[in-house]
């Protein structure tokens, strides 16, 4: 949870430096859980509206006030975390000695698989042009288990 809050509070639009795998994946995990929890009521309403439209009932009856609140929260949250999620991905690319411009691979088919591989790769040992290794390892020796 600390990594998620660190990305939101301290590195909201920070595209410089490096991000460890732990920071990236913890942010991604918590962000995904929050998005799923916000989508459950909205998806339920969409399914209910589809079922009512097949029965020739009023399809907007499934759209309740609670669903609208969750829909608004989902849109606001998604827009609010768009910049930090791009920023942490760019900083993670920097940690693997790749430029942030590699993020644009997401725009082509199967490019996101290449980005996924880069996100899984270990940090480049030592310093690179984006800063020192966030693990604090400079001589290329393997990291201890707690520094994943």
Throw out a few tags for this protein.
148 residues; mainly alpha; 0% strand; elongated
What does this structure look like?
This protein has helices at 2-9, 21-54, 65-80, 82-95, 111-120. The model has no long low-confidence stretch (mean pLDDT 84). The protein is mainly alpha-helical and 148 residues long. The longest helix is centred in the first third of the chain and has 34 residues, at 21-54.
> Termini separation (Å)?
16 Å
Note poorly predicted spans. Answer: none
Residues in helices, as a percent range? 55-70%
Radius of gyration from the CA trace? Answer: 20 Å
The coarse silhouette is elongated
β-strand amount: under 5%
Largest sheet: none
Number of strands: 0
Summarize the helix and strand pattern as letters: HHHHH
Helical stretch tally: 5
Name the average pLDDT: 84
The secondary structure category is mainly alpha
Give a quick summary of the entry:
It is built from five helices and no strands.
Structural topology:
Elements: H1 2-9, H2 21-54, H3 65-80, H4 82-95, H5 111-120
Helix pairs in contact: 1-2, 2-3, 2-4
């Amino acid at each position: 949870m600390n990594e998620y809050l660190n990305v939101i509070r301290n590195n909201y639009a920070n595209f410089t430096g490096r991000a460890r795998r732990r920071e990236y994946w913890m942010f991604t995990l918590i962000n995904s859980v929050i998005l799923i929890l916000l989508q459950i009521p909205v998806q339920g309403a969409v399914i209910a509206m589809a079922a009512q439209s097949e029965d020739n009932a009023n399809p907007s009856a499934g759209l309740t006030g609670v669903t609208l609140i969750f829909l608004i929260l989902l849109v606001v949250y998604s827009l609010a975390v768009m910049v930090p999620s791009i920023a942490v991905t760019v900083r993670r690319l920097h940690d693997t000695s790749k430029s942030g411009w590699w993020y644009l691979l997401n725009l082509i088919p199967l490019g996101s698989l290449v980005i996924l591989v880069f996100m899984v790769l270990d940090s480049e040992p030592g310093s690179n042009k984006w800063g020192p290794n966030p693990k604090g390892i400079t001589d290329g020796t393997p990291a201890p288990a707690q520094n994943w």
